[in-house]
Specification:
- This protein is an alpha+beta fold and 277 residues long.
- It is 42% helix and 25% strand.
- Strands 1-3-8-6 form a four-stranded antiparallel beta sheet, with no helix packed on it. It has a four-stranded mixed beta sheet with strand order 2-9-10-5, with no helix packed on it.
- Helix 1 runs parallel beside helix 3, helix 2 packs antiparallel against helix 3 and helix 2 runs antiparallel to helix 5.
- The radius of gyration is 28 Å and the shape is elongated.
- It starts with 6 loop residues before the first helix and ends in a 7-residue tail after the last strand.
- This is DUF1109 domain-containing protein.
- Keywords: Membrane, Transmembrane, Transmembrane helix.
Length: 277
């Protein structure tokens, strides 16, 4: 049996697949430093643009391709909104229900031949969508991204808690500073705290480990527009349980673990993705 394959339709299908891949790559927050709000808005505007193009086109199967691209764009838009905004079970259900009603209404209208656009009005509509998109991107770029400010204490004192058995090593946690994330933009943006690491210098003790962490929630990866949040910066020390006297550490930035100090010192290193203080 010989299969008859329409090469033109095959190429159209490949184009839709690559467009879907491009859209998925677009929403991964690895290209185009845009806010979450503007990315979602651009996806929605793209959906409207493809619908307008599909209504206006009456050549070959280009209208079908345009509607396929519209459907793919809308699916990516809904997925992006659900993943980034986390509307909850009720919100997700309402969004999906509204989307179903929207596509049923569009399908019914197309079957009835209700939306009818000539090339010129369609071009005007697409031009307006492009202008709105440019304005959104411009506003996004003008309002700037999230700013991070790392503040450290001058010193911190740690000691083995009373009542600990005098053997082995004891983990002790103390606050050594804070990180502030400020989003001056009116748009929701991705939240990515700078990587913070630390070590102890100026000590000859056989074991004085330090683990630096923040109290950010594991799934907290967005920050709303015009919002400022503060997170505690804590250090977990591993102390020798036989040492009963408290130890005071100076806290310094701008030095590395090879630095020499005459007193116990915590060296704090801020990752490259942080903003200058």
């Amino acid at each position: 049996m010989r299969l008859a394959i329409d090469s033109g339709k095959l190429l159209y299908a490949l184009g839709v697949l690559f467009a879907a891949a491009a859209l998925l790559y677009f929403v991964r927050d690895v290209v185009f430093d845009l806010s979450i709000t503007v990315k979602a808005a651009l996806l929605l505007l793209g959906f409207v643009a493809f619908v307008v193009a599909g209504v206006a086109l009456e050549q070959d199967v280009l209208d079908v391709v345009a509607f396929a691209l519209a459907g793919v764009t809308y699916v990516v838009f809904v997925g992006y909104v659900v993943v980034r905004y986390r509307p909850g079970e009720t919100g997700t259900f309402l969004l999906l229900a509204a989307s179903a009603a929207l596509f049923v209404a569009l399908g019914y209208a197309l079957r009835r031949g209700l939306p009818s656009l000539s090339r010129r009005p369609a071009a005007y509509a697409l031009g307006a969508l492009v202008v709105v998109s440019v304005l959104l991107v411009g506003a996004d770029a003008a309002t700037g991204g999230v700013r991070y400010d790392v503040q450290t204490n001058d010193s911190v004192t740690v000691a083995v808690p009373a009542g600990e058995q005098p053997r082995g090593y004891v983990p002790v946690t103390r606050r050594i500073g804070s990180i502030t994330a400020a989003n001056p933009s009116p748009f929701t943006r991705a939240l990515s705290l700078p990587d913070i690491s630390g070590c102890i210098v100026g000590q000859t003790a056989p074991r004085e480990d330090l683990w630096v962490s923040t109290d950010i929630e594991w799934d907290e990866d967005t920050i709303a527009g015009s919002t400022t949040r503060a997170y505690a910066l804590t250090g977990e020390f591993t102390l020798d349980a036989n040492r009963t006297e408290p130890t005071t550490y100076a806290v310094e930035r701008g030095i590395d673990c090879s630095a020499e100090r005459s007193e116990p010192t915590i060296a704090i290193t801020v990752g490259e993705n942080s903003r200058p203080d």
